[in-house]
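=== RUN LOG ===
request id: a7f3
mode: sequence -> structure
chains: 1
length: 113
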Amino acid sequence: MATARELGPLRGLAWSAVRRRRALLRRLGSAALDCAWVAAGRLDGFWEVSLQPWDKAAGVLLIEEAGGRVSDFAGGAHSLYELPILASNGHIHDAMLRVLDDATLVTISFGRR
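=== RESULT ===
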Protein backbone atom coordinates (compact mmCIF):
# COMPACT_ATOMS: atom_id res chain seq x y z
CA MET A 1 0.00 0.00 0.00
CA ALA A 2 1.08 3.57 -0.53
CA THR A 3 0.37 7.05 0.73
CA ALA A 4 1.88 10.37 -0.12
CA ARG A 5 3.50 11.10 3.25
CA GLU A 6 3.16 10.43 6.94
CA LEU A 7 3.27 13.99 8.27
CA GLY A 8 0.32 15.84 9.79
CA PRO A 9 -2.25 14.68 12.34
CA LEU A 10 -4.76 13.12 9.91
CA ARG A 11 -2.10 11.34 7.88
CA GLY A 12 -0.37 10.22 11.05
CA LEU A 13 -3.52 8.55 12.37
CA ALA A 14 -4.04 6.66 9.12
CA TRP A 15 -0.34 5.76 8.88
CA SER A 16 -0.41 4.34 12.42
CA ALA A 17 -3.61 2.39 11.82
CA VAL A 18 -2.12 0.69 8.75
CA ARG A 19 1.25 0.03 10.38
CA ARG A 20 -0.49 -1.70 13.32
CA ARG A 21 -1.70 -4.27 10.76
CA ARG A 22 1.92 -4.94 9.74
CA ALA A 23 1.27 -3.73 6.21
CA LEU A 24 4.19 -2.78 4.00
CA LEU A 25 3.97 0.91 3.14
CA ARG A 26 5.63 2.84 0.34
CA ARG A 27 5.93 6.56 -0.24
CA LEU A 28 6.71 7.12 -3.89
CA GLY A 29 6.28 10.89 -3.83
CA SER A 30 3.72 11.11 -6.62
CA ALA A 31 0.00 10.39 -6.26
CA ALA A 32 -0.24 9.81 -10.01
CA LEU A 33 2.51 7.18 -9.84
CA ASP A 34 0.95 5.57 -6.75
CA CYS A 35 -2.38 5.25 -8.55
CA ALA A 36 -0.73 3.97 -11.73
CA TRP A 37 1.04 1.28 -9.71
CA VAL A 38 -2.26 0.25 -8.08
CA ALA A 39 -3.81 -0.01 -11.55
CA ALA A 40 -0.83 -2.07 -12.79
CA GLY A 41 -0.96 -4.41 -9.79
CA ARG A 42 2.37 -3.32 -8.30
CA LEU A 43 0.61 -1.93 -5.21
CA ASP A 44 -2.57 -3.20 -3.56
CA GLY A 45 -3.85 0.18 -2.42
CA PHE A 46 -3.34 3.89 -1.93
CA TRP A 47 -4.84 6.53 0.33
CA GLU A 48 -4.36 10.21 0.89
CA VAL A 49 -6.24 12.87 2.80
CA SER A 50 -5.20 15.96 0.87
CA LEU A 51 -4.86 15.93 -2.90
CA GLN A 52 -5.89 18.38 -5.57
CA PRO A 53 -8.08 17.09 -8.45
CA TRP A 54 -5.19 17.32 -10.93
CA ASP A 55 -3.06 15.12 -8.65
CA LYS A 56 -5.46 12.20 -8.86
CA ALA A 57 -7.65 12.52 -11.98
CA ALA A 58 -5.55 10.33 -14.30
CA GLY A 59 -4.79 7.81 -11.57
CA VAL A 60 -8.46 7.37 -10.65
CA LEU A 61 -9.27 6.70 -14.30
CA LEU A 62 -6.46 4.14 -14.60
CA ILE A 63 -7.58 2.30 -11.45
CA GLU A 64 -11.23 2.18 -12.48
CA GLU A 65 -10.39 1.02 -16.01
CA ALA A 66 -8.16 -1.73 -14.56
CA GLY A 67 -11.06 -3.00 -12.43
CA GLY A 68 -9.98 -1.44 -9.14
CA ARG A 69 -12.10 0.53 -6.74
CA VAL A 70 -11.92 4.19 -5.67
CA SER A 71 -13.92 5.70 -2.80
CA ASP A 72 -13.83 8.12 0.09
CA PHE A 73 -12.84 6.81 3.53
CA ALA A 74 -16.47 5.93 4.29
CA GLY A 75 -16.74 3.73 1.19
CA GLY A 76 -18.91 6.24 -0.66
CA ALA A 77 -18.52 7.41 -4.22
CA HIS A 78 -15.35 9.40 -4.74
CA SER A 79 -15.42 12.81 -6.36
CA LEU A 80 -12.31 14.54 -7.64
CA TYR A 81 -13.39 17.56 -5.63
CA GLU A 82 -13.80 15.71 -2.32
CA LEU A 83 -11.22 14.58 0.20
CA PRO A 84 -9.90 12.01 1.05
CA ILE A 85 -9.26 9.24 -1.49
CA LEU A 86 -8.94 5.50 -1.00
CA ALA A 87 -8.00 3.41 -4.03
CA SER A 88 -7.35 -0.31 -4.26
CA ASN A 89 -7.18 -3.32 -6.51
CA GLY A 90 -10.77 -4.00 -5.39
CA HIS A 91 -9.96 -7.18 -3.47
CA ILE A 92 -8.74 -5.47 -0.30
CA HIS A 93 -10.89 -2.34 -0.42
CA ASP A 94 -13.27 -3.32 2.38
CA ALA A 95 -10.36 -4.33 4.61
CA MET A 96 -8.67 -0.99 3.93
CA LEU A 97 -11.89 0.82 4.83
CA ARG A 98 -11.98 -0.98 8.19
CA VAL A 99 -8.35 -0.11 8.93
CA LEU A 100 -8.81 3.54 8.05
CA ASP A 101 -12.05 3.63 10.02
CA ASP A 102 -9.93 2.78 13.08
CA ALA A 103 -8.08 6.03 12.49
CA THR A 104 -11.36 7.98 12.88
CA LEU A 105 -10.53 10.37 10.07
CA VAL A 106 -12.86 13.09 8.94
CA THR A 107 -13.83 13.84 5.38
CA ILE A 108 -12.91 17.33 4.29
CA SER A 109 -14.61 18.94 1.30
CA PHE A 110 -13.41 21.82 -0.83
CA GLY A 111 -14.49 23.55 -4.01
CA ARG A 112 -17.96 23.77 -5.48
CA ARG A 113 -20.49 21.00 -5.21
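=== NOTES ===
The first strand starts at residue 2 and ends at 3.
The helical segments are 9-19, 31-40, 53-65, 93-102.
=== END ===
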